[in-house]
Amino acid sequence: MSLKKEMLTKTFLRVKPVKMLCSLKSGPKYATILSKENNCTYSHTVKLLDLFKDFGFVEFEKKGRIKIISLTESGENISILLKKILIELNTSNKK
C-alpha cells in the first residue's frame, strides 16, 4: 500500500481494528492468531475483541481454556462494508 493510500485509510479508518474484523471473515480464530495476523499485541487484540463483543460484532465460544472468536451476522455485514470502503478509498485515490 502506498504512503498516500495508507494515509487516506488511516484518516478515515483505524487500520488494526478494521484488519482484525476483516480477518475474522475467513472463519473463527483464536485471539493469539488474530494478534499475529494483524501485527498487534495480544493485550490490544483482547481489548479490541471485547469492544467488538460489546457492539455485537463477535461472539466467543470457550473450549477448555481457549476462546474461539467468530463474527456474528452483524459483524459479518460490517466486515463486508469495511472491505468495500477500503476498496473505494483505494480506487478513488487513483483518480
Report the CATH superfamily: Winged helix-like DNA-binding domain superfamily/Winged helix DNA-binding domain
Q: What is the spatial order of strands in the main beta sheet?
A: 1-3-2
Helix content: 55-70%
N- to C-terminal distance = 16 Å
CATH fold naming: Arc Repressor Mutant, subunit A
Structural features:
single chain; 95 residues; Arc Repressor Mutant, subunit A; 3 strands; 15% strand; globular
Protein model, in words:
This protein starts with a helix and ends with a helix. It contains five helices and three strands, in the order H-H-E-H-H-E-E-H. Helix 3 (31-37) crosses helix 4. The radius of gyration is 14 Å and the shape is globular. The mean pLDDT is 87. The chain has 95 residues and is of the alpha+beta class. The longest helix is centred in the last third of the chain and has 20 residues, at 73-92. The protein has a single domain, classed as Orthogonal Bundle (Arc Repressor Mutant, subunit A), CATH 1.10.10.10. Helices cover 63% and strands 15% of the residues.
Question: How are the SSEs ordered, and which strands pair?
Answer:
Layout: H1 3-12, H2 15-23, E1 29-30, H3 31-37, H4 42-55, E2 58-63, E3 66-71, H5 73-92
Summarize it.
The chain is of the alpha+beta class and 95 residues long. Helices cover 63% and strands 15% of the residues.
